[in-house]
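I'll show a record.
***
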Amino acid sequence: MIEGMPKDKIVSTIRALLARASKEQNSNEHERNAALRHAHRLMEEHAISMLEVSQDEMGSIDREQMNIGISNWKRSVVGLIASLYGCAVCWPTNEKSKNFGDVFIYGRDNNRATVQVISEFVIESIEKEWEGYKSRSTRNDLDENSFCIGALYGVRDTVISLRKARADFAYEGSTALAVLDQYESWGLEAKEAMNVNQFAAPPTEVKDLREAMFGRSVGKKLRLEPHLEASTSKADEV
């Protein structure tokens, strides 16, 4: 129904979706997540800058805390997704820290929530692919870490392609450029808001290139904006 719709109507649709994604207005977490993904997709497809959507809809700069354990590949997945949505990420490297194993996402409210939802989807997908791969293999010397690091780099390939496509698109008009500038502006705001400056190095400890290469092919196939489930398709009808 978006095809041919006036721009002001599309902006109103985005605002409605962001309102549906608010905890204050919607207690259904699944619906909130679907609405967030849909809103961001519409902004990308129609080159709608958040400059055209009120600042209140996106919320203030703050941080989200995710507990994902100490695997560097998982931390790096969150960092890659954050780079697409104007957020910044850091995590404690001191094993004695009470927050060791947590990742902090800095950015505007709805952007942080989007990063968390998509990161969880990607991490869970990689873990499921590994379990399937392991169950099908006749080998006993499989290396999970190599597979997951390979998948991470497959995700990185996709992120690089998306960022390039976004930059190429920006040259097509001032509105598209405003979208790109806004994402970069959000990223700078998020980095300035961080109160910790310790970063773990990206994982490089690949022991088995076979697992890493297969994992990379798996990572490249993952969508960084998951399909909406049938049960949440009503979000598309706003």
Remarks:
- The longest helix spans residues 109-136.
